Amino acid sequence: MSDSNGTTRARRILTAVDSSSWEHPADRAALAAFRRIPAFDEVLRKLFGLFGEKPVRLAFQANALRVSDRQFPEIYKRYLDVLQVMDAPEVYELYISQTPLVNAGAYGMNRPFIVLNSGAVRLLDDDELIFLLGHEVGHILSGHVLYRTMMVLLINLARMGFPVVGLAARAVLLGLLEWSRKAELSADRAGLLAGQDPNAALGAFMKLAGGGDDDETDLNEFLRQAETYREDGDVADLVFKVLNLLGTTHPFHVLRAAELRDWIEAGEYDRVMRGEYRRRDDEEKPYLDDLAAAARSYAADAQSMMSQLETAARRMREAIAESFKWP
Prior knowledge:
62% helix, mainly alpha, four-stranded mixed beta sheet, 4 strands
């Protein structure tokens, strides 16, 4: 992390931080539910064992270079810093793939790895790139990679018309997509904790959404746009917002920025930075607590949606009444 003078500022090392310290409650509850299905992970591994660990890894890494102290050494240095800040138990393989799409992903079954798109390397500045790397490390530490890999493979099989992806599998895929969008919110918080620079995290969303250099964009304007999208619009707009999310693995970038800012303003980021977080060797949180937290989260989302629907319906009634007024 660099300040305005270009000097490096130290980041707090989050010793033994547990992933529950940043996970969205709905993400935690969904993962807990998955893991309590008898041999669920083992079944997944056997299912995709039809492909094999090595072929799956090679498929993701076919057009990529492995990052090391000899290839992309500066990025490798930043990546090691991220692993140190998050107190990761090992160094996961990192690759850069030649593609203009500004994105990254964490994949794998038994051996997680990260693929960083070259478009992200070119567009993001150092602090924004650290946020993105921390985001992917957060996916690994939260145990997301097996399910994410399964979801990506199912999506690709569905696109190819593979017969294994029938109606039942498509229903499972929709469920995984809903979980994935919540998992992205968790990983965004992990990325913030890794970089410890809120402006860089929010700025990364702005560039992921529309690209552009710093002299072409304005973060405050982007955040106002996020609030406008989340709060405004008539009933038709709300319907399209829901439909726009169906079939996507990520929430929209403007919404992710708003969600992360909410987490910051709620004091949760500062709490973790003060060292008030759960450690990996702490007693496991009861499963029912996660379910209750998830229920509160979905209830808040539903209440917000109903409030927006009521407001939109009122605006439509007023607009219709106004249109029938005599001049």
